[in-house]
């Protein structure tokens, strides 16, 4: 039912926006000559590649291109990247462009915008090609919402047949790739073709800005819908030569909920028919030269994991305690140590910085809430973090082994993180090596005092009698 | 009457007060540990520099030996962490761990008032008032201390390592106790033996976070302080003794052993005419202070004065006062007057005594259990539990031990103990008589319950330590005398210690007879002859004594070697026991097959599944064995758990398990149960599963609900689950839940534990549905189906329903309504 209501609302929204747009004069000077959109639905992270050929039909040079998203998609938008292509075929070069979310007051029906800033302003009459990649999470809705062990998982994907854009689009095509040939249903917006695992909408000619025609694709997707609801990564720097990482996961299968019986005999005897949407393996890609890896949860070690290391990467294959069916969750902790010299460097101005990978090491997972805590050694000052995308930051203090003043913790928080966010970030701080000796000296002095007290006690006669 | 014999201090034990005794007793190889004595010795005797140096060296040496013994005791218990992981073991430790977590989170006052609504649903349990808080408070304090020093160890880590730490303490306490009895040499040996005695290891490996872990330390330490008070007559130690007793009461129900053993010893001393003021100081404050302190512990409370377990101490308390009074009167009256007084008092006293005893007997007899708790009664009458309380009898650790388990748990100590007893009789002191009494009673108790082997272990270690140390003493001395190069030096040292030699020699012969005969059959005859020859001239003169009061060199060397061999055997056995037999956490099972190590982690798989995929307030029913684990690991409410305080409640669950499906469903539904958990080992061959425990469920259930009859489940008195099994057995819930769809695994349904094909292979469940089965099928979790709807046209309705679901979405399989 929910899905139907959702579809209706989208339809209503689309009609409304069409009416609204017809009455509206185009204030823009840009046209999209040709647009191609490829939607990849094979995993639970939806990847959309957009190739836009933009022409400036106005008189003034334009330096920005607007991307429009319906409000339902914006909430699930994990990342947007844009590249400008120049050159032909083999000599193609890509220049990354800056994409920033923008508020436009006159967006119809809460349409949200992103602005792509072009490297060189587009002069009147010129054309340029922009490639956009954006990723959506939680956009595949399981229907039926509950399945039994022997059923496979069917999901909806909702979008528009035309690209939502504030510009006039002369020609556009949309390709949708599904994971298997089993497509239960899809909305027909002529011309629509289906071949194998690919659905083709279009080509559509000359659609006005903000054209919208909702489509629903209902298809089979048995890929693991592994979502980490919350991930806390704690990176602890010790200047004695190692970095300790501890990652706490709360993992959920967000696909169609499992209902009724779970029969182990069927799961074991017929793995291809039973529980096809469930998963039991996860792959974590860890940095090379990782050591003392552990994988456990609150009730102890989980014995099913394999670590493969080579000089370039380490791969940790983990199995949760039980296979995860839809709606089932599990919590676990992965921890490991890393050599300090691989990650800690000294910047030219004398400060030290940690260069570490952001994001979740698990392959193909969505992290709803990612918290990274960088625990700097006791006595370090002036921490500052450099992250290539926007994150929330604040500082905390943590007391660890024999700390007196506490360690500064830089906390970075990000919602909706996906594997593309696995890029390095830096934390800069100043640290005097003398602080390394504080704790050993403290211990030594305590022991010294203890022995002194012993010696003193032995030489003092406290008895009353003589 | 002769005056009471003064306290016999064996020359081998260092005198507690006199510092001068230290350098007079040159034969003492292990001078007292106390550092102040050494320093005074150095200051006082500049002339005997060599001796004091030797003493100082001995002190330092024994200090380091003790340190190493502590390290040994700690590290031998880490096999479980190294082989498995740092994890809480078994069943009861999980409860203690959960309580400790609660304590560290909510503080001590919340802990005292804790009413736990997650167990014994719907009754609940008052944890604060029914738990021995010693262990929890100890671990909680350690955790708090570490955290306030900013050492962020988790509660779990602290709990795991509490037992090894306390076994190090226990071995030090053993040293102190044995030192009081027979001197530092015996103390060190006993400490080393205790550090690795398998019986104690079985209860105190890292992770076995149970009361016994700290209680054994408390037990030994209380005994030490008692003996110390007895030896010194110091009120300071008497107070400490009461405090140690208080700690023991906090820690373990076994404190009743102390409060019965010490009165027994006091009585023994009085009867054998060894009464002394020191005995009074050692006993009277303990009873008064100890009882008051014990009553402070909520779980004991008024039991400290009301139950029969404590009567002995009060009786002896009266007796010792009477005796003390008699000695006092005797001191101030002339013998004639005294005789008159005695006749007067005895005649009056007898009447009063008879009256008091009659009242007491009447009081005690009026209570059904004669004022004893069930567990104590089953100690006094070993057949009591199996007759009347199946729930006590069903616990495996309450069974009587077998002979091999003695060898397994105390190994060679079993042979050394008699030698130690004999050594204790030469000469018999208050302290050594206590040790003898301790071993005798603990041997009896260990024979009743295998669990009490733990109480026997320290006694066995102390006596074996004494035996070994005396034997070593004799042999090394014999060698020392006979080696020509050493004779010159030793003569100087030995001159001052002639009485010691005589004393030692008598002990030697005794030890030899007992200790050595066991190992050296061939040389026994020779030695006996030689001993006889040697003993006679020993009285003659000092010079001869030195040369003749020794064993022949060869015999001593061989005996020494054999003793070392014996010790080596013991060490090997202990390490093996620690590594192989007692380190398994029983949560995780491993098996070695040709393709390597195989891990069975099914229990935690099931508990993790329960904790993440069921509602937080769901109730889980299982046999009581798994109650503590379910509450601690899965955090779900259970019906019964390992604290078997309510027999009826357990019987209800037992009845449900042994009833047919429908009746069981009704029982469980009335208890608000949502999930039923059974442990099944038939697929992988895990023997301690629910089918093997099932007869106890029937017995306990039948004890309260008579419609469950044990013979219904037995075919010709035999418990079987194959095709010969009775229909009652094949239709009971436990059978069905265990074997549901088992036949589909191999087609034959062959049970690897019972080594047979099961009787009924194909059946359906109508009131339960399987919701989870672990990887090796060891834990199976079923959900109670919801109650049937009362619908008239059932067939039609359900059909239309299935149509509507299939119309909304194509469902690949045919849906079956289980209620049709």
UniProtKB/TrEMBL annotation, chain A:
Signal peptide feature range: 1-27
Alphabetical keyword list: Endoplasmic reticulum, Membrane, Signal, Transmembrane, Transmembrane helix
Localization (cell): Endoplasmic reticulum membrane
Domain of life of the source: Eukaryota
Pathway: Protein modification; protein glycosylation
Pfam families linked: Ribophorin_I (PF04597)
Family per similarity comment: Belongs to the OST1 family.
Biological function: Subunit of the oligosaccharyl transferase (OST) complex that catalyzes the initial transfer of a defined glycan (Glc(3)Man(9)GlcNAc(2) in eukaryotes) from the lipid carrier dolichol-pyrophosphate to an asparagine residue within an Asn-X-Ser/Thr consensus motif in nascent polypeptide chains, the first step in protein N-glycosylation. N-glycosylation occurs cotranslationally and the complex associates with the Sec61 complex at the channel-forming translocon complex that mediates protein translocation across the endoplasmic reticulum (ER). All subunits are required for a maximal enzyme activity.
Protein name per the record: Dolichyl-diphosphooligosaccharide--protein glycosyltransferase subunit 1
Organism in which the protein naturally occurs: Rubroshorea leprosula
From TrEMBL, chain B:
Keywords, comma-separated and alphabetical: Endoplasmic reticulum, Glycoprotein, Glycosyltransferase, Magnesium, Manganese, Membrane, Metal-binding, Transferase, Transmembrane, Transmembrane helix
Compositionally biased tracts (Basic residues): 789-802
Source species, domain of life: Eukaryota
Quaternary state and interactors: Component of the oligosaccharyltransferase (OST) complex.
EC number in record: 2.4.99.18
GO cellular component: endoplasmic reticulum membrane
Biased composition range(s): Low complexity: 803-820
Organism: Rubroshorea leprosula
Name this protein carries in UniProt: dolichyl-diphosphooligosaccharide--protein glycotransferase
Localisation: Endoplasmic reticulum membrane
């Amino acid at each position: 039912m929910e899905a139907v209501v959702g579809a209706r609302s989208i339809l209503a929204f689309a009609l409304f926006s069409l009416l609204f747009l017809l009455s509206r004069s185009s204030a823009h000077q840009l046209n999209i000559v040709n647009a191609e959109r490829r939607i990849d639905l094979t995993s639970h992270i939806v990847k959309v590649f957009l190739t836009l050929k933009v022409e400036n039909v106005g008189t003034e040079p334009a330096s920005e291109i607007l991307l429009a998203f319906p409000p339902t998609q914006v909430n699930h938008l994990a990342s947007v990247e844009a590249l400008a292509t120049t050159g032909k075929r083999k000599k193609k070069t890509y220049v990354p462009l800056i994409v920033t979310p923008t508020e436009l007051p006159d967006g119809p029906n809460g349409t949200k915008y992103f602005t792509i800033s072009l490297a060189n302003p587009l002069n009147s009459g010129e054309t340029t090609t922009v490639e956009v990649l954006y990723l959506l999470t939680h956009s595949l809705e399981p229907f039926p919402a509950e399945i039994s062990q022997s059923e496979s998982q069917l999901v909806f994907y909702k979008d528009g047949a035309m690209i939502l854009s504030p510009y006039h689009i002369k020609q556009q095509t949309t390709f949708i790739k599904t994971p298997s040939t089993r497509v239960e249903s899809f909305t027909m917006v002529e011309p629509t073709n289906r071949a194998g695992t690919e659905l083709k909408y279009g080509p559509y000619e000359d659609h006005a800005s903000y054209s919208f025609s909702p489509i629903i694709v209902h298809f089979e997707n048995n890929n693991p819908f592994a979502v980490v609801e919350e991930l806390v990564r704690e990176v602890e720097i010790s200047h004695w030569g190692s970095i300790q990482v501890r990652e706490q996961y709360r993992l959920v299968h967000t696909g169609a909920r499992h209902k009724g019986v779970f029969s182990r005999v069927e799961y074991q005897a017929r793995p291809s028919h039973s529980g096809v949407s469930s998963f039991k393996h996860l792959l974590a890609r860890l940095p090379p030269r990782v050591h003392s890896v552990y994988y456990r949860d609150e009730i102890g070690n989980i014995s099913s994991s394999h670590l493969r290391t080579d000089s370039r990467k380490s791969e940790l294959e983990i199995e949760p305690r039980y296979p995860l069916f839809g709606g089932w969750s599990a919590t676990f902790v992965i921890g490991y140590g890393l050599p300090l010299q691989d990650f800690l460097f000294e910047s030219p101005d004398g400060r030290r910085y940690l260069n570490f990978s952001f994001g979740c090491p698990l392959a193909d997972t969505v992290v709803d809430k990612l918290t990274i805590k960088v625990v700097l050694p006791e006595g370090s000052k002036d921490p500052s973090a450099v992250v290539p995308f926007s994150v929330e930051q604040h500082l905390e203090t943590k007391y660890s082994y024999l700390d007196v003043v506490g360690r500064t913790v830089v906390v970075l928080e990000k919602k909706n993180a996906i594997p593309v966010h696995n890029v390095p970030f830096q934390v800069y701080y100043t640290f005097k090596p003398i602080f390394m000796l504080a704790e050993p000296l403290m211990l030594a002095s305590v022991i010294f005092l203890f022995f002194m007290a012993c010696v003193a006690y032995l030489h003092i006669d406290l008895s009353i009698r003589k | 009457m002769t005056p009471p014999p003064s306290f016999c201090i064996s020359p081998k034990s260092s005198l507690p007060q006199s510092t001068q005794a230290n350098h007079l007793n040159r034969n003492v190889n292990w001078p007292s540990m106390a550092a102040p004595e050494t320093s005074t010795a150095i200051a006082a005797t500049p002339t005997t520099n060599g001796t004091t140096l030797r003493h100082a060296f001995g002190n330092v040496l024994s200090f380091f030996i003790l340190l190493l013994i502590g390290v040994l005791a700690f590290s031998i218990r880490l096999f479980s962490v190294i082989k498995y992981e740092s994890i809480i073991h078994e069943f009861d430790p999980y409860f203690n761990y959960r309580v400790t977590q609660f304590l560290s989170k909510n503080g001590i006052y919340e802990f005292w008032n804790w009413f736990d609504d997650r167990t014994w649903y719907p009754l609940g349990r008052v944890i604060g008032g029914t738990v021995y808080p010693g262990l929890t408070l100890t671990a909680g304090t350690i955790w708090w201390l570490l955290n306030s020093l900013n050492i962020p160890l988790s509660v779990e880590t602290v709990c795991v390592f509490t037992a090894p730490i306390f076994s190090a303490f226990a071995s030090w306490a053993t040293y102190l106790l044995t030192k009081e009895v027979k001197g530092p040499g015996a103390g060190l040996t006993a400490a080393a033996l205790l550090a690795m005695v398998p019986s104690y290891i079985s209860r105190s490996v890292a992770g076995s976070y149970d009361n016994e872990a700290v209680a054994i330390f408390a037990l030994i330490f209380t005994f030490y302080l008692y003996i110390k008070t007895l030896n010194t007559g110091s009120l300071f130690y008497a107070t400490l003794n009461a405090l140690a007793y208080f700690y023991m009461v906090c820690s373990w129900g076994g404190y009743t052993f102390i409060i019965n053993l010490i009165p027994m010893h006091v009585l023994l001393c009085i009867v054998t005419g060894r009464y002394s003021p020191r005995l009074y100081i050692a006993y009277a404050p303990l009873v008064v202070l100890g009882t008051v302190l014990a009553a402070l512990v909520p779980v004991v409370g008024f039991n400290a004065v009301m139950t029969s377990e404590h009567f002995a101490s009060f009786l002896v308390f009266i007796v010792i006062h009477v005796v003390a009074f008699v000695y006092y009167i005797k001191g101030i009256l002339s013998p004639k007057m005294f005789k008159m007084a005695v006749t007067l008092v005895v005649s009056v006293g007898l009447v009063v005594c008879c009256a008091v005893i009659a009242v007491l007997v009447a009081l005690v007899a009026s209570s059904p259990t004669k004022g004893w708790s069930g567990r104590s009664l089953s100690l006094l009458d070993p057949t009591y539990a199996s007759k009347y309380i199946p729930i006590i009898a069903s616990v495996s650790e309450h069974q009587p031990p077998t002979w091999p388990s003695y060898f397994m748990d105390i190994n060679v100590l079993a042979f050394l103990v008699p030698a130690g007893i004999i050594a204790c009789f030469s000469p018999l002191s208050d302290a050594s008589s206590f040790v003898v009494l301790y071993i005798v009673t603990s041997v009896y108790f260990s024979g009743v319950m295998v669990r009490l082997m733990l109480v026997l272990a320290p006694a066995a270690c102390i006596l074996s330590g004494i035996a070994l140390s005396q034997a070593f003493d004799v042999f090394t001395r014999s060698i020392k005398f006979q080696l020509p190069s050493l004779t010159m030096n030793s003569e100087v040292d030995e001159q001052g210690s002639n009485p010691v030699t005589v004393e030692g020699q008598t002990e030697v012969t005794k030890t030899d007879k007992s200790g050595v005969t066991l190992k050296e059959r061939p040389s026994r005859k020779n030695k006996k002859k030689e001993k006889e020859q040697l003993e006679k001239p020993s009285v003659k003169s000092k010079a001869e004594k030195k040369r003749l009061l020794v064993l022949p060199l060869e015999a001593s060397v061989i005996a020494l070697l054999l003793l070392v061999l014996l010790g080596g055997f013991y060490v090997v056995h202990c390490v093996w026991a620690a590594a192989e037999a007692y380190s398994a956490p029983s949560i995780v099972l491993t098996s070695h097959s040709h393709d390597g190590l195989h891990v069975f982690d099914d229990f935690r798989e099931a508990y993790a599944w329960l904790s993440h995929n069921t509602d937080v307030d769901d109730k889980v029913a299982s046999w009581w064995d798994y109650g503590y684990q379910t509450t601690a690991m899965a955090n779900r409410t259970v019906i019964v758990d390992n604290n078997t305080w309510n027999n009826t409640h357990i019987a209800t669950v037992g009845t449900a398990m042994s009833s047919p499906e429908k009746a069981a469903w009704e029982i469980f539904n009335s208890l608000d149960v949502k999930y039923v958990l059974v442990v099944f080992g038939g697929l992988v061959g895990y023997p301690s599963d629910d089918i093997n425990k099932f007869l106890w469920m029937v017995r306990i259930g039948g004890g309260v609900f008579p419609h469950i009859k044990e013979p219904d489940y037995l075919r010709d008195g035999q418990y079987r689950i194959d095709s010969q099994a009775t229909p009652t057995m094949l239709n009971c819930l436990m059978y069905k839940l265990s074997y549901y769809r088992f036949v589909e695994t191999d087609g034959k349904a062959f049970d690897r534990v019972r080594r047979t094909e099961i009787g009924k292979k194909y059946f359906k469940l109508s009131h339960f549905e399987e919701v989870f089965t672990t990887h090796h099928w060891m834990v199976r979790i079923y959900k109670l189906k919801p109650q049937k709807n009362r619908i008239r046209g059932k067939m039609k309705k359900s059909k239309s329903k299935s149509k509507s679901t299939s119309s909304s979405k194509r469902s690949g399989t045919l849906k079956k309504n289980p209620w049709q």
